[in-house]
Amino acid sequence: MSNESINGGSSGPRSEEHVRFWEARAAGIDAAASVPAYTPTAEDLRIFVRVAALGSFTQAAEQLRLPRATVSTAVQRLEKRLGARLLQRTTRRVGLTGDGRAFLERCVPVLDSLDELGGFFHRPDGPLDGRLRVGMPLGMSAGAVMARLPEFLACHPALLIEISSSDRRADMIAEGLDCIIRVGAVVDESLACRPLGALRLGNFASRDYVRAYGSPGSPDDLARHWLVDYRPNPSDGPAQFEYLDAGAGRTVRVSMRSRITVDNSAAYQAACRAGLGLIQAPPSVVRRSSDLVAVLPDFLPPPMPVNLLFPHFRHPPRRVRVFADWVMEVLSP
Predict the structure, then answer these.
(1) How many other C-beta atoms lie within 10 A of the C-beta of residue 87?
(2) Which long-range contacts (CB under 8 A, 24 or more apart) does 52-55 make?
(3) Quick check: 11 pLDDT over 50?
(4) 275-301 core/surface letters (b: 16 or more CB in 10 A; e: else)
(5) Is the pLDDT of residue 20 over 60?
(6) Residue 72: per-residue pLDDT
């Protein structure tokens, strides 16, 4: 067979892959099997993960310090070579398709492994580097963790930290987070869990509220009081006043009336300061606000468990493990 036949009937130069395709076809071999599978580059994977996390090509380009065209081209290259649509583009936001979510779940551990490999010869107790993406409740990021973060970064000056602060349940994969610190019961069985400690809570009201309604002397008085309803997730039911009955060894929940519902800890505390009802929050809230006073000190809520969550399929990188150890120290009494 002539070279012209192998080259598909034209005389221009052809790539080595193209020549192998036609040689295989002439030999009666399955052509698709003769073409090597596409292996995405680490750079393209990192770009895709960042676009998926932020839901924006523009924001991803800004964070990665790349031209927007470079980011867009990288994603288009992935989609073309994989033969699948990974992202659904609208005028307002970029979202993951079903194929995109499945691909993202496989990208993250691959990139983690590459990061681990890159630090293979580093001292296991040496300074951290790279980027750590952490989700945590708004109150925690604005409180003890943020206040002491400078000392952690001083020990690891090459480490970059991104904190996503929200009280709602975050989608770790879609948002590109390495880990999440969650306060309260863990309901997502798809995530691995490492206990970090417990958060003590107290009962509080504003001074104006106490002047207007008085201070409850016992749980029996709660029927004539107001509670700020805290629902960080749309599926959450009405909040209740909770306290630990040490004698019975159980948690008692009391339904109360409420005239305001909020979805984050900042609004929760602000509503209390405005005199709109009682709240149950960490004592650090009182230390930061002279407008609040403690109520029902003998009927405290049970401590809230604090856990570090990360995907089951991912071995947490060293920077996640070290950060978790540090958070445990910060939260310790």
Answers:
(1) 20
(2) 52/86, 52/87, 52/94, 52/96, 52/100, 52/104, 52/174, 52/176, 53/133, 53/174, 53/175, 53/176, 53/177, 54/176, 55/93, 55/94, 55/95
(3) no
(4) bbbbbbbbebbeeeeebbeebbeebbb
(5) no
(6) 93
Continuous H helices in 190-254: 207-213
Taking the CB of residue 53, how many other CB atoms lie within 10 A of it? 23
Higher pLDDT, 13 or 323: 323
Report whether 128 contacts 97 (CB < 8 A).
no
Locate 8 and state its tokens.
Answer: 């598909």
- Both tokens assigned to 228: 């700020």
Q: Please tell me the distance from the alpha carbon of residue 252 to that of residue 219, in angstroms, as a whole number.
A: 10
Least Cα distance to 52 among 108, 91, 120 occurs for 108
Show the tokens assigned to 243. Answer: 């306290």
Answer for the pair 75, 48: CB distance below 8 angstroms, yes or no: yes
> Which of the two residues, 210 and 63, has the higher pLDDT score?
210
Which pTM was predicted? Answer: 0.62
- Per-residue pLDDT tens over the stretch 85-94: 999 887 778 8
Coil vs helix vs strand at 266: helix
Q: How far is residue 52's CA from residue 2's CA, in Å, rounded to a whole number?
A: 48
Task: Note the pLDDT tens digit of each residue in 119-156.
Answer: 555 555 667 788 888 998 888 877 778 888 999 999 99
CA 83 to chain centre: 29
Which position has the higher pLDDT, 330 or 234?
330
User: Which runs of consecutive H residues, i.e. helices, occur in 119-187?
Assistant: 138-142, 144-155
End-to-end CA distance of the chain: 81
Report the C-alpha gap between 30 and 32 in whole angstroms: 6
What is the maximum alpha-carbon separation in the chain?
99
Hey, which residues does 182 pair with through a beta bridge?
Answer: 307
Distance CA 153, CA 134 (A): 14
In the chain, the domains with their CATH numbers are 3-34 (no CATH), 122-198+304-333 (3.40.190.10), 202-302 (3.40.190.10)
